[in-house]
Design goal:
Layout: E1 3-7, E2 10-13, E3 18-25, E4 32-39, E5 46-53, E6 64-65, E7 73-78, E8 83-88, E9 97-104, E10 119-120, E11 124-129
Parallel strand pairs: 2-11
Antiparallel strand pairs: 1-3, 3-8, 4-5, 4-9, 5-6, 7-8, 9-10, 9-11
Length: 130
């Protein structure tokens, strides 16, 4: 019954922005690592960002970014809704990929490798033209 659904993908010109959303259903508890991966045709899945979606009193979720995302992308969370977002600014053609929302439940920390996440969305296409 656990499900993740991405939205917000589309086509933009280089330098433009997109905001991706990930809605969840069926996640139990309030100790979840959630994040974003992306995949280009013929390439392996690449981590983009993650954030810990847990009690607010535990902190800001320690958002983490890959080198390619750092400075341009911002991950955020809605704890009550168990949702995450990815604000992508100054998009470049190399950012074109299918973007996946991921989650790992019952986690005390967050992770950056794909095998750590058992829950994946279906993906949303992002295309950036020059």
């Amino acid at each position: 019954q656990v499900q993740l659904v991405e939205s917000g993908g589309g086509s933009v010109q280089a330098g433009g922005s997109l905001r991706l959303s990930c809605t969840s259903s069926g996640l139990t508890g309030n100790r979840n690592c959630m994040g974003w991966f992306r995949q280009r045709p013929g390439d392996e899945r690449e981590v983009v960002a993650n954030i810990y979606v847990g009690p607010a009193e535990w902190g800001d979720g320690s958002p983490w970014y890959s080198d390619s995302a750092k400075g341009r992308f911002t991950i955020s969370r809605d704890i009550a809704k168990k949702m995450i977002y990815l604000q992508m600014d100054n998009l470049q053609p190399e950012d074109s990929a299918v973007y996946y929302c991921v989650a790992r439940t019952a986690s005390d920390t967050c992770y950056t490798y794909s095998a750590a996440f058992s829950i994946w969305g279906q993906g949303t296409q992002v295309t950036v033209s020059s």
